[in-house]
Amino acid sequence: MDALLLTHARQYVGPGAVPVLLREKHRLVCHDTGFVDAAVARDFEIAHAGAVALRGQTPDAIAAELQERGIAIGAVVANDVFPNTPLPIEDVALETLRQSLEALLIFPYRLTQLLLPPMKLARRGIFVFITSARHLQPEPGFSVATAVRAGTTAFALALAKEAAPFGIQVNVVAPNYLYSEAYYPRARFIDDPSGRREIASKVPMGRLGEPREVGELIEFLVSGRSPFTTGQVLNFTGGWP
Q1: 8 A C-beta contact, residue 26 and residue 224
Q2: How far is CA 17 from the centre of its chain?
Q3: 200 near 177, Cβ under 8 Å?
Q4: How far apart are CA 149 and CA 224, in angstroms?
Q5: What does the DSSP assignment read for 151-191?
Q6: What share of the chain is helix, strand, coil (3-state, %, to 5)?
Q7: What is the C-alpha separation between 148 and 164, in angstroms, rounded?
């Protein structure tokens, strides 16, 4: 059975996706920036029996490690992250924009370049890109995240068009108001009553999305149960905006 590669497994949608993917018996191979520390990688594998923690950090290093280990990838969940620091457009350092592009667009683009050819040869494969629904209603101060995440969504749609003749599915999950410590931390938006009220005033569901819920959506998309579904953007937003 070909393996499923999940990037940034301890961040963003990773904590919700990992247990669901393992529950459904996927052969799960994970990348994470923390895995440069052997102890962190080992603890992750112990906590998530069946998962493999890769040490490689760049797309090229990940691909090389997969080859060395003899692991063929049949599905990719590109779950990429970059911190949001709200700033007016005129105050955004261009270096911040470049770093965001590197993390959120260039990283998954290069990883796709490396992993796509074997899928084309096999005439099967699945990509799921985790981006953002921010472009549906841009907010002041978030121009970098809005622009770059939208670029990755557009890339995924272009990939879907090119890959479909080879039997390869490509879809996007676009969250907003998903609980994660990176973007909607518990202390501010769950434990704090004022934070909960803020979320309830914006999200029709009245709460943040739960990690397990997005994990279930991702698992469906990588399951292969609906192979005719490709080129779709699924907004995980609780009815927002």
Answers
A1: no
A2: 10
A3: no
A4: 25
A5: HHHHHHHHHHHHHGGGTEEEEEEEESSB-BTTTB-HHHHTS
A6: 50, 15, 35
A7: 24
Q: Tell me the one-letter amino acid at 50.
A: G
Cβ neighbors of 118 (< 8 A, separation 6 or more) are 72, 73
Contacts of 170 (CB under 8 A, 6+ apart): 126, 127, 128, 129, 156, 157, 159, 160, 163, 164, 230, 231
For residue 1, pLDDT beyond 90: no
Q: Which two tokens stand for residue 194?
A: 């004022």
**What tokens appear for 163 in the block?**
């890959």
Those residues with Cβ within 8 angstroms of residue 194's Cβ, 6 or more apart along the chain or in another chain: none
Which of 211, 228, 104 lies closest to 171 in space, CA to CA? 228
User: What six digits make up the tokens of 51?
Assistant: 């998962």
Measure the CA–CA gap between 25 and 27, rounded to whole angstroms. 6
- The pLDDT tens digits for 101-145 are 999 999 999 999 999 999 999 999 999 999 999 999 999 999 999
**pTM over cut 0.90:** yes
